Every structure is written in C-alpha cells, then in structure tokens.
Amino acid sequence: DSGVTQTPKHLITATGQRVTLRCSPRSGDLSVYWYQQSLDQGLQFLIQYYNGEERAKGNILERFSAQQFPDLHSELNLSSLELGDSALYFCASSVGAQPSGANVLTFGAGSRLTVL
Amino acid sequence: AQKITQTQPGMFVQEKEAVTLDCTYDTSDPSYGLFWYKQPSSGEMIFLIYQGSYDQQNATEGRYSLNFQKARKSANLVISASQLGDSAMYFCAMTYSGAGSYQLTFGKGTKLSVIP
To answer: Cβ(B43)–Cβ(A2) under 8 Å?
Structure first.
C-alpha cells in the first residue's frame, strides 16, 4: 500500500456521461498530480495541485477539470466522455511542489475508466 | 520541449542475469532529474531510483543502478541478478526546474520479461 488512495478502482460508463475520480494523498504530502495512462499515448501528465492551488498544467482536455480541497484530497472530473477517454487514471502525491530525489512522486493504484 | 526515449519495447533476460534498460533524454535545461519507475501487471507505479543532473556519482539502490552518461544524455537502468518478480513495465522519467514548471515526463516504457 503506497498510502495514496484512489477511488473507484474500476468504473464503467457510457459516452456523454460525467464521472468523478477521487484521490487522497499520503499523509503529509501537499502536492497531488493526475496522470492518464492509455495504450496509445502512454503516461500523460494532466495537472498538479500544491496545497490547494493549481501548480502546473499538462495535456488536460477542456472537458476535464480538477481541484484540491482544504483537506488536500483531490478530485478529477471528466465530462462529455468519449470512447478515447478510456484509460487508467493515476493520482500521485509528494511532499513538495517539485519532483526531485528528495521529493519523489508516490502513485496510487489507479482508477480504470472504461467508456462504452 | 523535454523528451524521454525508451527504444526497447520489450526485453527478455534469464533469471539471475543482469539486464540494462535504455533511456535517452533531450533537454536544454542544465538542472533536471531522472527517475525510473516499475509497473507490475497489477498496475501500480513503484519508484525505483533517482539521478540528479548535478550528481557526480551514479545512483544505486540495492539491485538497481543507474548508468548516467550526461554527455550522451543517457540514463540506463541496470538490474543485477534478475528475479522473476522483476517482470514488469519499466518507465524512465525526467523532471526539470525551468519556467516554473514541475512536470514529470515519462517515456513509453520497456516491458521486461524474466525467464526462469
């Protein structure tokens, strides 16, 4: 157990629907990162929050949004889902704002989204 | 833009033998970090080893070592005495501290299969 908790583990939904993925970081970690892993695109960085504020933005679609709450848990909202959104969505956390040897990203087990 | 290349989609190694997984990177930033992660079939991402661009010595962590050749922009992972449990996907990743961005960029990965 990495200490990063992601729910749900599996989710099956239909095109056009909206889903919310939840992440609780390791105790003491202030940064939360979201990644999407698909067969064709590999691991893609979506967005990072640090202590409640957006810190960095990657290849996140406009249909996707995220936030980090005062208790530091984070949610990734995916709307108007398309077949191509089917992927494994990872949350990772770290203590500080910048990945480094002293600030390694710890990943959760992922949420597997299937869009039918 | 920063880029990570892993040229070996798949590798086979005999149990107890050593194996090298290749990783090359491209960046113009003098300050960067290189990471290796392991992803077993169960799906979680496990941190293995880190090398900073200013580190003078190659990083080692147990059976893992990083062959860092800065001039050639390569950061190959060496696994000594392979075990069956080493069968997994291995990802090389890079981060950098430029322009206020704190992203961790991943390569496409190498699938390692350990043969008994």
So the answer is: no
- Residue B90, CA atoms < 13 Å, CB-side half-sphere: 30
The per-residue pLDDT string of chain B (116 residues; one tens digit each, 9 = 90 and over) reads 668 999 999 999 999 999 999 999 998 888 889 999 999 999 999 999 999 999 999 999 999 999 999 999 999 999 999 999 999 999 999 986 655 566 889 999 999 999 99
B chain contacts of residue A33, beta-carbon cutoff 8 Å? 104
Question: Measured between alpha carbons, how far is A20 from A56 in angstroms, rounded to an integer?
Answer: 20
Calculate the alpha carbon distances from B5 to A61, A100, A113, B24, B51 in Å: 24, 20, 27, 5, 16
Residues in A closer than 8 angstroms to B45, CB to CB, are 90, 92, 107
* CA-based nearest residue in chain B for residue A41: B108
Q: Are A101 and B50 in contact (CB < 8 Å)?
A: yes
B84 three-class SS = helix
Buried-state track B53-81, b at ≥16 Cβ within 10 A, e below 16: beeeeebeeeebbbbbeeeebbbbbbbee
DSSP A100: B
Arithmetic mean of pLDDT, A109-114? 97
Q: Which residue in the set B43, B91, B107 is minimally distant from A109, CB to CB?
A: B43
